[in-house]
Amino acid sequence: MRHKIGTALVALGVAGVSLMATGSASSHGYTDSPISRQKLCANGTVTNCGNIQWEPQSVEGLKGFPAAGPADGKICAGGNGPFAQLDDPRGGNWPATNVSAGQSYTFRWQFTARHRTSDFKYYITKNGWDRTKPLTRAALDPQPFLTIPYNQQPPATLSHTGTFPSGKTGKHLVLAVWTVADTANAFYACSDVQF
């Protein structure tokens, strides 16, 4: 009887480790240029961030944005309740990267696991959006200002260059979406920028 209980406990332990490994296998990328909210939390630049400070790579949600994906008001956290601090606009006072309208810019992703990728898309808020409210689709320009098709597995760090839209002034939010090819998910990163 002891042997059966011991065997059962070992089997449960292995199953638990396997389940945990499977769960964490889906959490693997963030932007650091322009610096994302999750990276600001991980760096300790912004405090009171909750769990995201230990998991900046974990902002994963359903893909298909903007037709699908995280609900309005939950976009920056990828729809993940434990990371809701990323959706809190903090009165519009998140630290922002200084950029210029029409500027060529190198966007950079860091990966802790490198899923085969469909593409990377970058959206930006409309002029006149309310930076004191959580991000919604209506606050974004309807089309991404940069799309990078990428039908392969990325390296640990990936950079690509694009151009910020002209005519932008003041503070804006860039939403970067990394669409994974071999799962139903994408990774989301919100970066505050100041034109």
UniProtKB/TrEMBL annotation:
Keywords from the named record: Signal
Residues of the Chitin-binding type-4 domain: 28-193
Keyword Signal appears in the UniProt entry: yes
Stretch forming the signal peptide: none
InterPro entries to which the protein is assigned, alphabetical: Cellulose/chitin-bd_N, GlcNAc_Chitin_IntDeg, Ig_E-set
Domain of life: Bacteria
UniProt-recorded name of the protein: Chitin-binding protein
